Amino acid sequence: MFNVRNALLAGTIALGAMLSACGSSGGDSSSGGKEVKISFLHWRGEDVEALNKIIEKFQQQNPGIKVDMQTLPSDQYQTAAAAKLTDGSAGDVFASFPGAQFEALSKAGQFADLTGADFLGRFNADLIQPGVKDGKQLAVPYQLVYNDPIYNVKLFDKYGLTPPKDWEGFLALCETLKQNGVIPIAFAGADIGPGQFMNTMVMNNEPSEDIFEKVEAGEAKLTDEWWVKTLSQIKELNDKGYFQPDALGTKDAAAGALFIQEKAAMLASGSYQLAQNAKQNPGLEQKLLAPITVAAGEAKYEGVHTSTFLLGVNSRSKHPDEARKFLDFLSGKEIASEYANATGQNVTVKDVEYSTPELKVATEWSTRKTLFQPRFTIKNADNQKAVTGSIQAVLGGSSPEEAASEAQAAVDQNLVK
Amino acid sequence: MARKRTLLLFLLPGVLLYGFLFLYPTAAGLFYSFTDWDGLSPSFRFVGLDNYATSLESLVFQKAVFNNVKFMLAVVIAQSALSLGLALLLARNSRSSTALRALYFFPAILSSVSVGLIWSFVYDPGIGMLNASLRAAGLESWTRNWIGSKDIAIYSIAFVQVWAHAGQMMIVFIAGLQSIPAELYESARIEGGNRLQIFRRITWPLLAPSATIVVAYTTIQSFKAFDLIFVMTDGGPNHATEILSTYIYHTAFASYRFGLASAGSMLFLAVLGLLTYAQFKALRADRASY
C-alpha cells in the first residue's frame, strides 16, 4: 500500500541531500581533529601571492594550523562577506573596510574583542583607532593609505611647478599645465573620484575630525558654507577644464591610464595606486600632493590618511585562538615588512622598513599633519552616497547650492529613522 | 484514488523545489519587510509598516521607480520593434537568414557582466570607441558623455540592453511567424492585399501570442536589469541610473538595511505583478485565432 507520509519523508530527504550537495564545503577539513583549518577572508586579490608566502611561513611555524585564504572582489566584498561571516562558513580572520561596514559588523557583534592582546603594541596606536568601538579594540587596521592626489614629478619639474600652498596657487598650477597641453587632473568621476578627491578638498574648508558625524546627527548641514564651498571649488576645477573632458563618465581604469601615459599631471586617487602606476610605467616619478583650498596661513591639514584593511577575529569562529595566533604573526615587524614591500602597501605596524620608492614616498607623509579620511567618518552608506552624489551633481551641471540641498534632503530622511 | 495520489507524487519534487527556492524566500522577504533587521545581527525589532512608508518617501526610491519606468519604456519599445523588424526580414529559412539570425542572437549568449564591461569601454568619453568613431567620421558634435550624463545615461544603458537581447526576442517572433499558415497569406494576396494590409490583418493579429511573450519578458527583464547597470554605472551618476533592483541591492548590502530592502522588494514584486497582469490583459484582447 502506498504511504504518502513515507513518500513525503523520502522526498524531503532526497531534496535535502541534493541541496546539501550543491552547498559549499567550508569549515574545518581535518578529519582526525589534529589539524585546525582557519579561514582568512579579505578583498585584496592582488596581495594573494605575497600572502601565500606569508601563510606558508606561518604554517611552518604552526604545523597544527592550516590557513585557507579566500578573496572576494572589493566591490562584492560588502555583499558576499557578510553572508559568509554570519553563517560561519568562512572568515575566522577577516578584513573589513572602515566606516559603514565596520560599524555594521561591530553592531552585529561579528568581531571578537582583541583589547589587551600583546600584538596590539606592535602597531602605531593612533593608526589603529578606526578599529576601536565603544572602547574595545575590535579590529586592527593593517594598511596605511594617504588619500592625496598623486603627481608626476618630472612633468612638474618640466614646467617649473611645485606643490602649491593655497587655492590660488593650485588654480595657477592647473592653468599652467592646461596651457601646456597637459591634463591637470585625471579624475574618475564615474566611480572612485568623488569619494577620494572630496577628502583633501574638504579637510581645510572644515578642519574638523567629526564634521560628518555632526551632519549625520543633525548638528551640521551639507548646505552649510563649508560643503557648498567644497562643491563650488570642485565645480570650478571642472568648469575651467582642469579635469579631463567628460570626467563624470570616466572610470578608475581610464583615469589611471591618463596619468600612467603621462597625459595627466595629477591623479585624484591615493598612495595605494603608486605601486600599480610604477608597475605599468617604470619611468614614472610620483609624489603626493593635497590641494590646499584655503589661504596659506589658514590650512590646518596637509593631507588625508586612512588606516584600512581592518583585520578582526570572527566572534563565531570555532578556532579563535588559532585565528588570534595568525593575527599575531601578521603583526610581526619582519612579516609586516615582507607584506608591505611585496604588495606596495604601507602598513600600520611600527618600525617597518620600506624598500621601494613608492612606499618611501608615502612614508614621507608619516610626519605630516594629516586628517583621517573624512568620507569614512560617514557611518551611513546612504549618507555617504548622498555626499559623493552631490559632487557628481555639480559635475553634471547642478549648482553647488542645489546639489548640497539635494544631498541634505537625503541625509534628513535618514536622520529621522 | 491511489492512481491520483501517485500522479500527485510526481508533482512533489517540483512543488518542493518551487516552495524552497521561491515561496519560502518570498515569504521570508515579506516577514523581514516588517522588521528593522540589518542582515547581520541575530536579533531585530518589528516595525510594522515603517519600512514601506520609508521606501515610498525615499527620494532615491522615487528616483529609482521613475528611472525604471523610463528604462522599461525605452527597452520594451525599442527591443520589441527591432526584434519584430529583424524577424520579418529573417523569417525565411534561407542560408543567409540562418547565418544572420545566429549573428544577431550571439550577444544573448554573452554574460551581462561581460557585455557591461565591453560597453563601458565603448562609451568611455576619453578612450571609448564610440566617441572616437564619431570624431573620425567628422561628427564631433554627436559625441556625448554617454554614461556620465544624468540626462542620457539611462538610455545609453537601455541601448545596450536592446543590443544584447533583441536577437533573442527575434527568435520568438520568428517562431510565431513560421507558425502562421502560408495559405492565409496566399489567399490575402489573391484578394489583392498589399504588404501593409497583410501585416495589419494577418501577421500582427496572429503574432499576438509571440508579442505577449516578448513584451512580458522584456518588461520583466528591463525591470530586473541589475547586472548591466551595476557594472556600467552602479546606479550613478548621482542615482541617475538607479533602478529598483540596484536600490534594493544598495539598501541591503551597502547600507545593511535588510528590512527596508525587503520592503522595497515586496513593492517591486507588486509592481511587476501588476504590470505583467495588465500586459496579458491588454495583449489577450488583440489575439486572433484561425
Automatic annotation (TrEMBL), chain A:
It comes from Paenibacillus pasadenensis. It comes from the Bacteria. Gene3D superfamilies: Periplasmic binding protein-like II. InterPro entries: Bact_solute-bd_prot1, SBP. This is N-Acetyl-D-glucosamine ABC transport system, sugar-binding protein. It holds the Pfam family SBP_bac_1.
TrEMBL record, chain B:
The keyword Transport applies. It is a multi-pass membrane protein. PROSITE patterns: ABC_TM1. Keywords: Cell membrane, Membrane, Transmembrane, Transmembrane helix, Transport. The chain crosses the membrane at residues 7-34, 71-91, 103-122, 152-177, 198-220, 258-278. Its main location: membrane. It holds the Pfam family BPD_transp_1. One of its GO terms (cellular component) is plasma membrane. SUPFAM superfamilies: MetI-like. It comes from the Bacteria. Residues 65-279 form the ABC transmembrane type-1 domain. PANTHER family: ABC TRANSPORTER PERMEASE PROTEIN (PTHR30193), INNER MEMBRANE ABC TRANSPORTER PERMEASE PROTEIN YCJO (PTHR30193:SF37). Belongs to the binding-protein-dependent transport system permease family. This is Binding-protein-dependent transport systems inner membrane component.
